[in-house]
Every structure is written in C-alpha cells, then in structure tokens.
Design brief:
Number of domains of chain B: 2
Shape of chain A: elongated
Strand order of the largest sheet of chain A: 3-6-7-4-5
Mean pLDDT of chain A: 85
Order of helices and strands of chain B: HHHHEEEE
Low-confidence stretches of chain A: none
Number of helices of chain A: 5
Strand content of chain A: 15-25%
Structural class of chain B: alpha+beta
Number of strands of chain A: 7
Distance between the termini of chain A: 50 Å
Strand order of the largest sheet of chain B: 2-1-4-3
Oligomer: heterodimer
Helix content of chain B: 40-55%
Mean pLDDT of chain B: 83
Radius of gyration of chain B: 27 Å
Helix content of chain A: 40-55%
Order of helices and strands of chain A: HHEHEEHHEEEE
C-alpha cells in the first residue's frame, strides 16, 4: 500500500512540478520579451514625432510637389501643410498616392538600405467624409509598433475644412516579438 | 485518520498552493513590466501643440470660433469661449482633460492634485478685428485623471 501511495504521490507531484515549470518558462519568456519589445516601440517615439511634424507642419519641397507623378517623384521632401501648421491641403493628401509604401517611407526621411522600417499613415476626417490609408499593412500581433495620433484640419480647394485624425504607425521590421 | 494517504493529500495541496502563489507572482511581475513601459511618452505635449495650431489657424465662425477671435476682447471671450472649449473637448482622447488659462478667464477643468499632465504656455495676440492688440499670456494644460 505504501509503495502504491508513493507512486500516486510521486506522479501527481511530478505532474504539478512539470506544469509549473512550463508556466514559469512561458511567463518569464513573455515578461522579458514584452519588456524588450515595448522598449523598441518607445525608442521610435521621437522618430514618429518627427515624421508627424514633417507631414503636418511642412509644405514640402517644392511646395507644389503634389501636382503630378513626376513632380512628386522628383520632390526632395513632402509635407501636407497648406502654409499654416496643422492645416493640410486636401490636394496634398491625395498626392501621397503618387508614392508606393517604400517611396513614401523614403520621402519622409526613413530611407535605409536594409529596409528596416515599416510605416503606415491613416488619415480620417471626424465627419467620416475623408478616409485615406497609406504605407505598409500593419504587422499582425506585434507589440513593437509605435503609434502617434495627431489632429489637424484638411482644407479643400473650395474652402471647406474638416477636422481630421492622423494616425502614424512606425515599426522596425524583424525586431520584437509576438 | 492520519496515514500515508493523508500525508500525500497534504503534499498535493501544498504543491498546488505553492504553484498558485508562484504563478500569481509571475502574473503580477509580467503585467507590471508591460504597463510600466507603455505608460511614458510625451503624447500630451504633441497633442497640446496640435490643438493650439488647430484653434489658431482654422477658419473662424460663430459656431467654431478661432483662438484669436475669442481672445480679441473681454466681450468676445464671454460670447465665444464656451464654443471654443466645447471644440477643444471634442479633440481630446478619452481620459484626457484640459485647462486653459487666459487673462480673460479660464476654460476646462483644473488639474487634479496629483494628475500627470503637460503645461504649454503661449502668447496670444488679441488683434483680431477690433481687438485690443495686446499680447496675452496664456496657458494650455492637458492632463490625465
């Protein structure tokens, strides 16, 4: 009877310890990796702030870069401001579609030989009339994406103004954990 | 009633209790790490800058008055400040509050005692229309409850 009891005890204790060790392993791994991954996102905050300022406060160079594909691709800088900080030109917002995701990233000063950054820009007017998504799709289930939310006015040529929320997502490819 | 079976049951209970304690400690450490890292940032500084740009440079109207128009005189402040404040509130994300102090009066909620926030002083020119033409020391404070 004693041997049988010992066997049951031993098997139960072994199972519990094994389950505990598995939990400890996964939770410790998660704690460490999520801390590091979140720090990757934090490190990108100054950079995503610069990208937002460039979009919202600069007119671009030249100022009429949005007039056509050739002028857009020959521009040395792009900005959406119509002259006042935070007031965006609707034409310039549409002009962003002259760039593919990689070119858009490069025009905003994120040029890197290793293709290390991912960038996504979402522009939504608060009245729902304007909705534009540009850049790369968001990587699924990653925690290292840095998001900056800005507010601005999008001004149409006829003088109509719409308040808009601009979300800028920036991340490093091949960095971080799920 | 004591015997080898009872001893085994006690050990199992001890092991289960110890497991629960260790796992709950790990859960606490794990959640603390994520919350701590994600809590920082200067989002309010950027937001206050965007709000000031927006209310300064947007087209002025009775329903949506601009900052310069509202601060052009004491009378205009009395007429337009509530509409301006309502517009600022709409721009704030959930859980963020504002307080604007001007020589003509204040708008919004005074920050709570230990609230985390960002204070942006600015100078407004009250020369809009028939304004007084003074330079007004103002302050916009954004804070989280």
């Amino acid at each position: 009877m004693d041997e049988a009891a010992f066997s049951v005890d031993f098997a139960a204790a072994y199972t519990i310890i094994a389950a505990l060790l598995i939990c400890i392993f996964f939770m410790a791994t998660n704690a460490i990796s999520s801390g590091f991954t979140a720090s990757y996102s934090d490190e990108l905050k100054p950079l995503v702030g610069q990208v937002g300022d460039l979009l919202l406060k600069s007119q671009g160079s030249p100022e009429d870069w949005y007039m056509g594909p050739s002028s857009a691709l020959n521009a040395t800088g792009i900005g959406l401001s119509d002259g006042h900080p935070g007031v965006l030109s609707a034409y310039k917002v549409e002009g962003l579609y002259f760039f593919n995701a990689s070119a858009l990233k490069n025009m905003l000063g994120l040029d890197d030989m290793e293709e290390g950054y991912g960038l996504r820009i979402e522009i939504r007017s608060l009245d729902g009339a304007l909705s534009r998504d540009l850049g790369y799709p968001l990587p699924p289930d990653t925690m290292d994406v840095c998001k900056s939310e800005r507010i601005a006015i999008v001004k149409e040529q006829d003088g109509t103004s719409r308040e808009a929320a601009i979300a800028i997502y920036l991340w490093r490819k091949n960095v971080g954990a799920v | 009633m004591s015997g080898p079976y009872d001893d085994g049951a006690v050990h199992m209970l001890e092991a289960i209790l110890a497991s629960v304690l260790v796992i709950s400690t790990l859960v606490m450490v794990n959640s603390y790490t994520v919350r701590h890292v994600n809590d920082g940032g200067n989002g309010l500084a950027t937001l206050s800058s965007d709000i000031l740009n927006l209310i300064t440079y947007r087209d002025n109207s009775i329903e949506h008055p601009g900052l310069g128009f509202t601060l052009s005189s004491m009378e205009q402040w009395n007429n337009s400040s509530l509409a301006l404040g309502a517009d600022i509130e709409k721009m704030l994300p959930a859980g963020v509050y504002y307080h604007m102090a001007t020589p003509y009066g204040t708008l919004g909620n005074i920050p709570a005692e230990r609230a985390r926030g960002y204070s942006r002083p600015f100078i407004a020119y009250s020369g809009f229309g028939h304004g007084t033409g003074e330079m007004l020391d103002c302050k916009l404070v954004l804070w989280r409850a």
